[in-house]
Specification:
The protein is mainly alpha-helical. The chain contains 27 helices and five strands.
């Protein structure tokens, strides 16, 4: 990291003075360094940068060699179309930590060919290639995915277990798809299609809520993309906690793709997208891939813009919603810390110090006080509640205890409201199914009617009438229908029974008596398609039976992804700041001692 900082500073000075190290007098005709000229340059820049001459001289020579190498690569590309790609390898695969690793290849080849070459050369069994935050598809060409001469590509390892899962019979032709990611997407897809009409104990579903926990009304298409995005993000964060940063980054980048399908208005109202950008750059840091400066810088900029939109310029919106801003400040601490790190790597020490100063100020307020934490935990509060409570109340012990108690009460009240709402909805669905309508049709009608049972019943009748009018079969006799209604059966059930029995009144009567005047969805499902009572818009079960069914496989998928969803809505704010503390100390060392140390 220190070498990168020094090289960035030297590049800036060389550019300002228009010095070209690859030309005489700095490089002779045999491409050897001009010894005296380079020595004089190192002496002058050492004084200018207040750094040891030997270190500056070594960095200048490294830059000179690199510019020559780049020039040769450009010439080779012009003459042979062989591009030079810089590989950002996993730490254990690097033969020399200070050397850059390049791969020469044509750009019109499949990514899989490059993957195979890298794997063979560096002893990496299963890998993925990442360019500017995007996973390259193995079955597409390099140039089709934006790879150019001198492109920098991250090489991410994939675990042996995951790779074996990935090579299932169904997905064998798409080896670049990760089975873990597929399972995550499948599980959250199932959850995104559930509407809460099933028994909550046997069929869990997800609901998108605002920062106070109230459900948000989002168009179905955006809701599905948002649930998938949040699901991948939760899985990635779970892997980050386990220090599995390679796999975590794969999931976080999938989340980023799903967020791109959501409208800008939606993204500006939730902070999930901004937190995701922070997490991706935090993974870059953990994987020592911060040479991806352009992508990292743009992601941090997007995160900062999104935070300002969500919280307000002075966090006034956040104050109105939550009554305090202390808990969210840890996100700004991490944002400023990563910005400081990137500024340092770009050679801008002044900007790095400025951002680090803001970080230290926040850290002083947000670092947990062990004594106060212990006192709150002795009152029966959890470690997370104590940490978040103290941050929300600027470290005031008594206010934190009251705040945590109030939060517990608010959560209990919200859960009770949700239970009541769910109970009423299920009762309404049962009422409508009692009239002979299917459960899925009843749930859809209630959704469109905003929970109004009478309005939903009217919608279902209208849909049934429209289908009856379009039916090419002989219409049901009004006289037969009246006979059944005279016996006390409802009109919709009577009509369905007559259709099931081919218009025979006695058989229809017997059918209704045997079923106590209610026709189950199973009975209704045996009717011909032309006489079905389903609504005009197809239910998920008619479009994608495998996604909405309660099969054992689907339930396993759902249970698998739910394991990675935190039960606490503010889990993403519960940073212990241990990693941040270590990076702060490292940054202070770099910025105070100059470049006299090694990475």
């Amino acid at each position: 990291m220190a070498e990168q900082n020094l090289e960035a500073k030297l590049k800036n000075v060389l550019k300002q003075e228009k010095i070209q190290l690859w030309n005489p007098p700095y490089t002779d005709q045999q491409n050897q360094p001009g010894t005296q000229t380079m020595k004089a340059l190192a002496e002058r820049y050492a004084v200018l940068l207040q750094l040891p001459e030997g270190e500056v001289g070594g960095a200048l020579e490294s830059l000179r060699v690199h510019t020559l190498q780049r020039g040769n690569q450009n010439k080779t590309f012009r003459e042979t179309n062989m591009a030079a790609l810089e590989l950002l390898l996993p730490r254990e695969a690097k033969k020399d930590a200070k050397m850059k690793n390049f791969l020469e290849t044509r750009l019109d080849v499949l990514v899989q060919e490059v993957v195979d070459r890298i794997g063979a050369e560096y002893g990496l069994k299963y890998i993925k290639l990442i360019l500017n935050g995007k996973t390259l598809c193995a079955d597409q060409r390099l140039d089709q995915q934006g790879v150019k001469n001198h492109s920098k590509m991250m090489v991410l390892k994939v675990s042996d277990a995951e790779w074996k899962q990935q090579l299932s019979e169904e997905e064998e032709k798409k080896k670049n798809d990760n089975e873990s990611i597929q399972r995550t997407q499948r599980g959250f897809q199932i959850l995104s299609e559930r509407d809460g009409s099933e028994d909550p104990h046997t069929s869990p579903f997800l609901e998108i809520a605002d920062q106070k926990g109230n459900p948000l009304n989002i168009p179905p298409k955006e809701k599905k993309a948002l649930i998938l995005a949040m699901g991948f993000h939760e899985k990635g964060r779970s892997l980050m906690k386990r220090k599995q940063h390679d796999n975590a980054l794969c999931h976080l980048l999938q989340a980023d793709q799903q967020f791109s399908k959501c409208g800008s208005a939606l993204l500006s109202s939730v902070d999930n997208f901004a937190v995701l950008q922070l997490d991706i750059v935090w993974c870059y840091r953990a994987l020592e891939a911060l040479s991806c400066l352009e992508d990292g810088r743009s992601r941090l900029q997007r995160a900062e813009e999104c935070f300002l939109q969500c919280y307000g310029q002075q966090q006034q919106r956040l104050m109105m919603i939550k009554g305090n801003t202390g808990r969210e400040e840890v996100l700004f601490l991490r944002l400023y810390l990563l910005q400081s790190l990137l500024s340092y790597l770009e050679g801008n020490d002044a900007q790095a110090r400025q951002q680090l100063s803001k970080v230290e100020s926040l850290y002083g307020r947000l670092a947990p006080d062990s004594d106060k934490m212990a006192q709150l935990m002795s009152l029966g509060f959890t470690e997370r509640e104590a940490r978040l409570g103290l941050r929300a109340c600027q470290g005031n012990l008594q206010e934190a205890a009251i705040h945590i108690s109030n939060q517990r009460q608010e959560r209990d009240e919200l859960k009770e409201r949700e239970r009541t709402k769910r109970k009423r909805r299920m009762e309404a669905i049962s009422t409508l199914t009692g009239f002979g309508f299917s459960r899925s049709d009843a749930a859809k009608a209630l959704h469109h009617a905003d929970g109004d049972v009478d309005a939903a019943y009217g919608m279902l009748l209208d849909s049934q009438t429209a289908q009856t009018n379009n039916n090419t079969e002989e219409p049901i006799s009004a006289e037969k229908l009246e006979q059944l209604m005279y016996l006390g059966f409802e009109v919709a059930v009577s009509e369905a029974a007559l259709r099931l029995t081919g218009g025979d009144v006695q058989s229809a009567t017997q059918l209704l008596l045997e079923n106590h005047g209610v026709l189950s969805p199973e009975l209704l499902s045996v009717s011909p398609p032309s006489t079905s009572t389903s609504s005009s818009s197809p239910s998920p079960s008619s479009e994608e039976p495998s996604t909405s069914s309660n099969s054992t496989e689907n339930q396993e998928l759902v249970n698998d992804v739910l394991k990675d969803i935190s039960r606490h809505e503010e889990d993403y704010l519960d940073l212990t700041l241990e990693e941040e503390s270590q990076l702060i100390a490292t940054m202070k060392t770099y910025l105070s001692r100059g470049s006299t140390h090694t990475v």
